[in-house]
Specification:
This protein is mainly alpha-helical. The protein is built from 6 helices and 2 strands. It starts with 6 loop residues before the first helix and ends in a 20-residue tail after the last helix. The protein has a domain of about 90 residues.
């Protein structure tokens, strides 16, 4: 007896792969960067299809293929979802709070920092240069560790 191809398993695994790897694309858009709802929907669709495919494979093994591959695909999909969730919901939230950072509209304190060439540049020097009325400061929040 010739068994049928269990397409639910393959499509479910492809959806899980898309949910894992497509975050690098969806991070470009603010609506999907702040909360990865598209990736979570892809993982959910993949999980539902994988479960449905496993039920077909184990429920009617004489009619459908996929007991071995379906189990392997499901384990890989769960591992990808776990790694994605751990990285996005735990590791990314471990940044220290920026309690000392200036707020929008606050006057910046006097400072002097090296530029890309290593030359010290002070805020008062920038404001005193001819034709300059204001200086735009852009702060990137990050976490750097000093190693000595």
């Amino acid at each position: 007896m010739n068994r049928n191809w269990n397409w639910h398993l393959w499509v479910g695994f492809v959806c899980a792969l898309a949910g894992f790897f497509s975050y690098t694309f969806f991070v470009l858009f603010p609506i999907t960067r702040d909360f990865p709802w598209v990736n979570l929907l892809l993982f959910a669709a993949g999980g539902i299809l994988l479960i449905f495919g496993l039920v077909r494979a184990f429920g009617r093994p004489k009619l459908y293929r996929g007991k071995v591959f379906g189990s392997i695909f499901t384990i890989f999909a769960l591992a990808m979802f776990g790694l994605f969730s751990y990285g996005l919901f735990y590791v990314a939230r471990q940044m220290p709070p920026s309690t000392g950072a200036p707020r929008v509209g606050e006057k910046a304190p006097e400072f002097s920092l090296p530029d890309q060439d290593g030359k010290q540049v002070a805020l008062t020097d920038l404001l005193a240069s001819p034709g300059t009325q204001a200086v735009l400061l852009i702060f990137y929040r990050g976490y750097w560790v000093n190693t000595l």
